[in-house]
Design goal:
Layout (H helix, E strand, L loop, with lengths): L3 H25 L18 E2 L6 H8 L7 H21 L6 H9 L8 H13 L6 E8 L7 E8 L8 E8 L2 E6 L9 E2 L1 H11 L11
Antiparallel strand pairs: 1-5, 2-3, 2-6, 3-4, 4-5
Helix pairs in contact: 2-3, 3-5, 5-6
Length: about 210
């Protein structure tokens, strides 16, 4: 049986090995799914919501159209924020997102790919029965290593390109949001068929830990 000193040494060795593995990943691993392709010439990065009651996010949602309900804007902000935090705990999310992707594919993590964040958020927002806001499934760089998926919200009848994107993947469960047409990292396209399919699937299962009021 190893001595306590040997046990501590082994634990330290494993810790160092894990740290080295992460360092190697960060240095040499390809970006993988949902990679960010940052191009500052194209716009600006989304901002991070500060709380479930983020006033700037609520105001931006209200600004989507004169008919947008303040109550709905508040609920969309709350549910989006709380969903990201809850899933980050449930999936034991690590940084950076590409490492979470790798660990998911190796069976170490239960979730964390970008489409999974979006697929969990969509039914939770749909459950709000929104009347003045419309949900969209947005995708970028489809079929490439940089493919990414988020939920976009517009005013009812409003154009997709003026919507607000809601992205819980980009910062590991911290809600990133901003104008679709200002995102410098991605070029977003609307996919209504994918949203419908995602919501149909959600009726066959309960999203893990619905965000509650």
């Amino acid at each position: 049986m190893p001595s306590s000193e040997q046990s501590r040494g082994s634990a330290t060795g494993r810790s160092l090995l894990s740290g080295a593995a992460v360092a190697v990943f960060l240095t040499f691993a390809p970006a993988g799914e949902c990679a960010t392709w940052d191009d500052p010439r194209r716009g600006k990065a989304p901002v991070v919501a500060t709380s479930a009651n983020d006033v700037k996010l609520q105001r931006s949602l209200l600004a989507l159209g004169p008919g947008v309900s303040p109550a709905e804007a508040k609920e969309v902000a709350r549910v989006s924020f709380e969903t990201g935090r809850q899933l980050a705990r449930e999936w034991e999310v690590v940084w950076p997102p590409g490492l979470q992707n790798l660990l998911f594919h190796r069976g170490v993590k239960k979730g964390g790919l970008c489409f999974q964040w979006a697929a969990e958020l969509a039914p939770r927002l749909d459950a709000l029965k929104l009347r003045t806001l419309t949900l969209h499934w947005a995708e970028s760089y489809l079929g490439t290593s940089g493919e990414h998926n988020v939920i976009v919200v517009t005013a009812v009848g409003g154009p997709f390109h003026t919507g607000i994107l809601l992205d819980n993947w980009r910062y590991g469960g911290r809600l990133a949001w901003g104008r679709v047409n200002e995102d410098r990292e991605y070029e977003w396209k609307d996919n209504s068929a994918e949203l419908a399919a995602t919501l149909r699937k959600a009726t066959q299962r309960r999203p893990s830990g619905m965000a509650k009021k």
